[in-house]
Design goal:
Layout lengths: L2 E10 L10 E11 L4 E5 L6 H9 L6 E6 L2 E2 L10 E4 L11 H10 L9 H14 L15 H13 L5 E5 L7 H18 L2 E6 L2 H7 L2 E6 L2 E6 L1 H6 L4 H6 L6 E8 L2 E4 L2 E5 L6 E7 L4 E3 L5 E10 L3 E7 L8 E6 L10 E6 L4 E5 L5 E2 L5
Parallel strand pairs: 3-8, 3-9, 6-7, 7-8
Antiparallel strand pairs: 1-2, 1-4, 4-5, 9-10, 11-12, 11-14, 12-13, 14-20, 15-19, 16-17, 16-19, 17-18, 20-21
Bound molecules: adenosine-5'-diphosphate and magnesium ion.
Length: 367
């Protein structure tokens, strides 16, 4: 089921009548979630992810704009009639019911032509439980399950009605690190098996990048960029997106373009043919550095951290916005830790420049 958002906007009125403090939680969203794909809504806390999800679900009514499921305009349709499955951060299971009763619950309330026989319901519940691999736990109560298992039950309960669209709001946030990894793989597998169009909300860029077919990066209710994770990482549209994606994060410097060259301090680090002279932010991905004693970019060496396959070189530079510069270099490169300075050449596709005022990317031809 394709999901399309058209000019979708949510404004929360001011709580205080005197002060005009209305919040534009979602500002004119236009994008399409292709049928059968998993899309990650990504952005810092408060950027409007949940509000977007709640409007898709029908739990919140848009201030303006429309939502389509396929060709159907569902904007005015109630949550029950949208054919969605919802999973929240806190598993919200019924504590007095067994796993099986929890999963069966949404089916028992079906009315009219959707009403199912007991056998049909059990078959569906067993299918959903197998899908999330909790079929051994059907007779337990939620209190007898781990957090990860509880979240699987919640997912099974969302899947049991065979929803047209599955909506997940930070579903892994309450799990510990290892379970979080495991459960996100599970969600990916279940989504691939069922091919249910899925919206996955998270503030964790690594989670979104690893699980999504497409990511939507959001900031203060405004969509910044939509694309495949790798595409967005390789081609960020502005400084915010460049900084939000990637661990370790991108290194950012005060720089300038002069005579078609990018300068950081006195170092002419890269050609930028055709770009007008101006002050810029220069972003360099940690993997964008080559150790090169004849390289143009000079930094003060702080320390070298061995990470096995790679080494992480920590250095400093007066023009750096962050207190340290982190570069990731293949461990086969030997770094002389006694030297005071380290010299780098830079990989052209790993360096970006941004307008100093509006922080938009300035494109230039990479040789
Ligand atoms: P996220 O899920 O990305 O953390 P939300 O969608 O929950 O963000 O919130 C977006 C913005 O809307 C925030 O500034 C939040 O304070 C505000 N907001 C959310 N729900 C309400 C509400 N019911 N009333 C007023 N403001 C709200
Ligand atoms: Mg939220």
């Amino acid at each position: 089921m394709k999901v399309e958002l058209q000019n979708l906007t949510k404004i929360f009125p001011s709580r205080n009548k005197k002060a005009n403090e209305e919040v534009v939680a979602v500002n004119n969203f236009n994008f399409t979630i292709p049928d059968g794909k998993l899309i990650g809504l990504l952005g810092p806390s408060g950027c409007g992810k949940s509000t977007t999800l709640y409007m898709i679900s029908g739990l919140q009514k848009p201030t303006s704009g429309k939502i389509f499921f396929g060709d159907d305009d569902v904007t005015e349709l109630s949550t029950e009639n949208r054919g969605i499955g919802l999973v929240f951060q806190n598993y919200a299971l019924y504590p007095h019911m067994t796993v099986k009763q929890n999963i069966l619950f949404p089916l028992q309330n079906l009315k009219g032509k959707d009403k199912m026989t007991k056998e049909e319901m059990l078959e569906r519940a067993n299918y959903a439980a197998k899908l999330v691999q909790i079929d051994e736990l059907m007779d337990r109560k939620p209190s007898e399950l781990s957090g990860g298992q509880q979240q699987r039950v919640a997912i099974a309960r969302a899947l049991v009605k065979m929803p047209r669209v599955l909506l997940l709001d930070e579903p892994l946030s309450n799990l510990d690190a290892r379970l979080r990894l495991q459960t996100r793989e599970e969600i990916r597998r279940i989504q691939r098996e069922t091919k249910i169009t899925t919206v996955f909300v998270t503030h964790d860029q690594e989670e979104a990048m690893s699980i999504s077919d497409l990511i939507v990066v959001m900031k203060l209710g405004v969509m910044q960029q939509i694309g495949e994770p790798q595409e967005v990482y390789d081609n960020p549209t502005n400084l915010f997106v460049a900084k939000f994606l990637g661990t370790p994060p991108i290194n950012v410097f005060n720089g300038r373009v002069h005579d078609g060259k990018i300068y950081i301090g006195e170092d002419a680090v890269m050609d930028a043919p055709g770009v007008q002279d101006q002050e810029v932010y220069v972003g360099i991905r940690p993997e964008g550095f080559n150790l090169d004693e004849n390289g143009p970019f000079h930094c003060k060496l702080s320390s070298v951290e061995v990470m096995g396959r790679d080494v992480s070189i920590v250095s400093t530079n007066e023009a750096s916005i962050n207190p340290i510069i982190r570069s990731i270099i293949n461990a086969e490169n030997k770094v002389d830790t006694n030297q005071e300075y380290v010299s780098y050449s830079l990989k052209p596709n790993k360096i970006f420049i941004f307008n100093k005022e509006n922080e938009e990317r300035i494109h230039f031809e990479v040789k």
